[in-house]
Design brief:
The protein is of the alpha/beta class and about 230 residues long. The protein folds into 2 domains: about 1-80 and about 185-230, D-Maltodextrin-Binding Protein, domain 2 (3-Layer(aba) Sandwich), CATH 3.40.190.10; about 85-175, 3-Layer(aba) Sandwich (D-Maltodextrin-Binding Protein, domain 2), CATH 3.40.190. It has 7 helices and 10 strands. The protein has helices at about 1-10, 25-35, 50-55, 100-105, 120-130, 145-150, 200-225; strands at about 10-20, 40-45, 60-65, 75-80, 85-90, 110-115, 135-140, 155-160, 175, 185-190. Strand 6 (about 110-115), helix 5 (about 120-130) and strand 7 form a beta-alpha-beta unit. Bound molecules: 2-phosphoglycolic acid (PGA). The site of 2-phosphoglycolic acid has 13 residues, from helix 5. This is Transcriptional regulator. Keywords: DNA-binding, Transcription, Transcription regulation. GO terms for molecular function: DNA-binding transcription factor activity; transcription cis-regulatory region binding. Belongs to the LysR transcriptional regulatory family.
């Protein structure tokens, strides 16, 4: 019976997700845990490099990251898009401009994520491609701290659009309309190839790819389309 099946869904779900996924995974856990009260969850939120370490040590059931590992073969499913955008204080002169050349972005004081961050890698490779170097004013190990530093006038930065999903209509931050942006990225749910997923992990993965995806699209997708970056939403 269904009750028996539900009874089977007991145990611990171990998740490890990159920092930007904290803007949607915890939200999805609410309805999931209500439906399966026998499941308890441990959620690690950390940067790309630490996720890779955890993956190599096989510490978790499932991972959410936006750049696939090359050290290990994984099974992956695309969840949602995770565009990286240029953020500036709302009152910054560039906030009024359109189609800002990437050289102008490189000329601004810049706040960078810490080494080991996937965001940092993506930013670095875009500017390397254009043979530009950034004027890095400050390294900060947290998206939230970077948002505060931008609002405080320390510089501009490039972060996932999802980091501003909960900002109200009078946000102190503006998304700049810059050439070569947004940097297109996606979140993937990942596990090592050949790993036998527990019933609990399989249940969560199915949930993530169906209803979870819808919830995430509703909460963050709205903001994504408001800013005119909805084209890649799948
Ligand atoms: P990060 O991960 O927290 O390591 O920057 C985000 C990403 O890779 O998109």
């Amino acid at each position: 019976t269904i009750a028996d099946l539900k009874g089977l869904k007991q145990g611990r779900l171990r998740l490890a997700v990159i920092t930007t996924a904290k803007y949607f995974v915890p939200r999805l856990l609410g309805p999931f845990c209500k439906r399966y009260p026998g499941i308890d969850v441990s959620l690690q939120v950390t940067n790309h490099e630490h996720i890779l370490n955890r993956l190599n040590e096989n510490l978790d059931d499932l991972y959410v990251m936006s750049q696939l590992p090359d050290s290990i073969e994984v099974t992956y499913k695309r969840i949602l898009d995770n565009p990286l955008v240029v953020l500036a204080p709302a009152n910054h002169p560039l906030a009024q401009e359109k189609n800002i050349p990437i050289e102008r972005i490189a000329a601004e004081p810049f706040i960078m994520r810490e080494p080991g961050s996937g965001t940092r890698k993506a930013v670095q490779s875009l500017f390397d491609e254009h043979k530009l170097s950034l004027k890095v004013q400050l390294d900060l190990g947290s998206n939230e701290a970077i948002k505060q530093a931008i609002a405080g006038g320390l510089g501009i930065s490039i972060l996932s659009l999802h980091t501003i999903a909960l900002e109200g209509p009078i946000s102190q931050l503006a998304v700049l309309d810059a050439q070569h942006f947004p940097i297109e990225r996606y979140w993937y749910a990942i596990y090592p190839n050949g790993k036998q997923l527990s019933i609990v992990a399989r249940t969560f993965l199915d949930y993530l790819l169906t209803e979870g995806k819808q919830v995430a699209e509703q909460t963050s997708g709205r903001k994504v389309s408001q800013s005119g970056f909805s084209g890649q939403e799948q």
